[in-house]
Amino acid sequence: MAFVTQHQIQKFHEDGFLVLEHFFTAEECDSMRNQIQKIVAEMEVPPHCRTEFSTKEDEQLQAQVQGSSDYFLTSGDKIRFFFEKGVLDEKGNFLIPKEKSVSKIGHALHAYDPVFKQITHSSKVQELGRKLGLERPVVVQSMYIFKQPGIGGEVTPHQDATFLHTEPLGRVLGFWIALEDATQENGCLWFIPGSHTSGITRRMVRAPSGTSTCVEFVGSEPGYNDSQFIPLPVSKGGLILIHGEVVHKSELNSSESSRHVFTFHVMEAKGTSWSKENWLQPTPELPFPSLYT
Questions:
Q1: In whole angstroms, what is the distance from residue 78 CA to residue 80 CA?
Q2: What is the pLDDT of residue 180?
Q3: Staple 16 to which of 42, 77, 198, 246, CB 3.0 to 4.6 Å?
C-alpha cells in the first residue's frame, strides 16, 4: 500500500482531504468493476421505484415524490439502484439501455457483496484507519458511482455531514476509490481547502410521517464561488480521504469516458451519537459493522 506519512495526515487535518495515489492495485479495481457488471446485469427495479439521483435540494425532494420513498429510506441495509437524470420516461421506463442509465448503487455493498466487503475491510484500509487515530470506526454506508459518459450528472457543492450527521461533528470520514482515472474532463472531485472548519449550515432529515416527501432540508447551503475550488484528479487505484464537513463537488461528465468509483463512509463511534433524524439508520439486520473486523 502507499505509505502514509505524518505530514500527509497533518495535511488532511488542514485541508479536509488527502489524495493517496496507487492505494489499490489495478487488479483490485478491475475486480470491483467486474463484480458491479454482474450486479447490474441482474438488476431488477420496479418502474415505480426507479428514482433519478441528484444532490440538488429541489430535485431530491421531487424525486422522493415521484419515486418510492421507502425504496430510498430502506436502502441503508440493502443493495439498490438509482438513475441518471433524463433516462426514464414518465412511467419509469428506460429510454436508454439500463446498464448505461445507472447513476449509483447503494448503500450496503460493503455488507452484502463479498468483493466490496473485502475491499472495505482490507488490511490496508484498517491500517490507514489506525494511522488516522480511529479507535472504534464503523462503516455506515457504501456506494458505487458510475458517472456515465456524456450524461454523468454534476454533484453540486455539499458537505457529507449534511446527510450523515453526528454529534459532535467531525466524526465522519469518506473513503473515495477511483476505479478509473478521474480527470477534469470526466468529472473528478473539486474541493475548497480548509472548508471543514466552519461547521454545517444545512441538514437533510427524515420528514414527519404523513408528509409528501420522506426527507426534508433544515437550513440552507451557502453560495460558493467557483474560484474557491481546486480540482483533484486522481489515477486509477487512487484513494481520496474526505472529511465529513469539507465542501466538495464534481462537474458533469461531458467526455466519452466513464468515471467509476467505489466509496464508503466511516464514523468514529467512540464518544459519538448518530442522529436519529438521519435518513440512514442502522437496523437489527445490519447494525453498523466495525471497520476493524
A1: 6
A2: 98
A3: 246
